[in-house]
Amino acid sequence: MAKFFSLALLCIFFTNCKKDNQIAAVPKAYNYITLNDIKTSEAKFSAEDITSFYSAGAVIFYKTTGGTYGKLRITDIDITNKKFSLELVNYDDVGKESLKKINIEILLSGGSADFDLDQGNIAQGSLSADFKWLQSGASVLFRPINNSLFYLYSD
Known about the structure:
It is globular and about 40 Å long. By secondary structure, the protein is mainly β. The model is unreliable at about 5-25 (pLDDT under 50). The protein contains 2 helices and 9 strands; from the N terminus they run H-H-E-E-E-E-E-E-E-E-E. Strand 7 and strand 8 (about 140-145) form a beta hairpin. It has a 5-stranded antiparallel beta sheet. A 4-stranded antiparallel beta sheet has the order 6-5-7-8, with no helix packed on it.
């Protein structure tokens, strides 16, 4: 009888434990994201345009045209004046920061700007550029170029 009672309790316990009751993962704060976190998300990287962020704080993981892994955070977007600001961190093969830049301001010239994440600077028309920032009116998009890959971090 005791075995039957124990088995019944186990059945009740396991049928009440549903996967959808699990707590969702909370994204790590930008400063705590490591190379390992970025590489763990690599299967989600894409060369597709990113159009789903329009506010400061968006975090994007990347693999550059040159093969460098890193993260960037949009720190300010000013649609009216066609400029945005970001900070970025590139990592070497062992996970140490190889390049860190803050307060990078990009002013759109002619509605777009190309940026080289390996160097951390504007690279208009360059084959080393990793993304193009495009704006037409209130519509903004982040376009990977030259075989670079990106992921809008959210989990």
